[in-house]
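Consider the subject:
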Amino acid sequence: MKLETACIHAARDKSHSTGAVAVPIYQSATFAHPCVGQSTGYDYSRTQNPTREHVEKIVTALEGGAGACAFASGMAAIATLMELFVPGDEIIATDDLYGGSIRYFNEISVKNGIIIRYIDTSDIPAVKSAITDATKAIFIETPTNPMMKVTDIAAMKALIGDRDILLIVDNTFLTPYFCNPIALGADIVTHSGTKYLSGHNDTLSGFLVAKTPELAERLHYLKNAIGGVLSPFDAFLVTRGIKTLAIRMEKAQQNALVIAQWLKTQPKVTAIYYTGLPEHPSYALTRQQARGFGAMISFSAGSVEIAHNILNKTELILYAESLGGVETLITYPITQTHAAVPEAERLARGIDDRLLRLSVGIEAVEDILCDLERAIGR
């Protein structure tokens, strides 16, 4: 089944009698037992709910995994993931991560005795040098947020070899439509389903997808124990969003390619970070391990005044945190997504007061360009 078809039909339930085309919303906290010792397969909605199970099956199929868990947010997924580890375990993480992940690692995981070491994971030799006997996982985001660095997933898996180290990949930016990390060697894939999977800026969700049945079972156990699960109605919304994932990703990427090329012509823009530009250092690697480049662009304005001018003057483009919806959004990482990252670390990674991040939507690209041109000025 092609991905475009799987987005719509991968988990279709042919067993129910109503013939409903849309998945029903099972808005029930508990389920009755037929008799002693028997179950319908559903007992309590924290443990499992038919609507949530449906979207989990879709995401499992799209990622090529053995099982998926759906959570109330991307950070609820990350929080549950980190319960795989015990005090003294060491995790090597991409240094240019989403700020919320960094905040959780630094403020929660470290408190719980987990050792976090931030490394530029696009530099495979640097990661090799960083691995110790205590290393239990390598957590990568590719492309990174917001500097768009790319990690070679297959090379990272080859580096791990037969060591007892989990390879975890945040696939939020590219989605399973453009990239399948499990096929490249990842053990667990994470998503903020709030973003492209739901695609309409109307619900929070998160996912963990496991490569093996054993790992999927362990994650389901933790999901039930911790309880940060996706509600039935939100599961319905994400399912509905995924149905149009293919056409949204294609259109958004098409727009992003045009906008990135246009930004190159602007004298008030000093740097552009987009993996779809041939001059991007990881352009060839992206073509090798992904089917597309996505629709996330970061760029630097010539001054903080120009950056603020763009944020204040766009009208069609919304100045808002988040990404992956049908609307084009512009974000100021230094005060929004990465505000919790210590200033010295932000600056070392290039996240300064001139950097802007653009989540390109599916509007007419001419209208997006017109709005940018008015805001940037000549």
Summary: The longest strand covers residues 135-141. The chain has two domains: 10-242, 245-376. The chain is about 35% helix and 15% strand. The mean pLDDT is 96.
